[in-house]
Amino acid sequence: MSEKKVTLTFDTSSKTVLLVQAVVLLVIGILLCCSIALDNIVNVILGVVFLIGGLINVVTCFMEHKSLIRTEGVFGSALIAFGLLCFLQNAIPLTQFITLFIIVVGAIALVDGLLGLLPQVKRKRVPTIVEAVVGAVLLTLGLCLYFIPDFQRFASVFLGVAFILLSVFLFVSTFLLHQGKRVK
């Protein structure tokens, strides 16, 4: 009797993975928009997101490198620990976390978009300008959340909108993929 060997492969650069990420971000964004002032639900949602993200990083690290002690594995471990902290302690001061998260993501997207406009970088103009504009909008929303106390009660809505915008960006960039490489 012959034994068949089954191997499992996971292509981390495929369009399917990007589409799954975009759908997950879209669903989480919609849930966050619907949960105004429900910090416990937001903590659970963030805990699930961090746990799943950490597990995906750890599994991907092992499948690619046959070792867990790599940058991806350690980062995945940190995400898992952060997710567990969300469940066990509800320890994340959500308003401050969401505010700083939106500020940082907006600033990074704005800087990346502006750097992408440099002639040496050679990226397509339209997606780069869209990235810079989205970054500027997110940075502005985050700063409003930080400096205007009345805005802070809508922090989960802003994070939901940010996730929805990020999912749309992932959908668009997924369909701009050409032969497994991003179009620049």
Question: How would you sum up this structure, described in words?
Answer:
The chain has helices at residues 15-34, 39-65, 71-89, 94-116, 125-147, 155-175. It is mainly α and 184 residues long. The radius of gyration is 19 Å and the shape is globular. The model has no long low-confidence stretch (mean pLDDT 78).
Offer a concise description of the structure.
With 184 residues, this protein is mostly helical.
- Structural class by sheet pairing and helices: mainly alpha
**Quaternary organisation of the protein chains:** single chain
Helical content band = over 70%
Count of DSSP-assigned helices:
6
Question: What letter string, H or E per element, gives the SSE order?
Answer: HHHHHH
Radius of gyration: 19 Å
Q: Which ranges are low-confidence, i.e. pLDDT below 50, for 5 or more consecutive residues? A: none
- The overall pLDDT, averaged over residues, is 78
Record field, number of beta strands: 0
Distance between the termini: 52 Å
Largest sheet: none
Shape: globular
DSSP strand content: under 5%
Q: What's the structural blueprint in terms of helices and strands?
A:
Blueprint: H1 15-34, H2 39-65, H3 71-89, H4 94-116, H5 125-147, H6 155-175
Top keywords for this entry?
single chain, 184 residues, mainly alpha, 6 helices
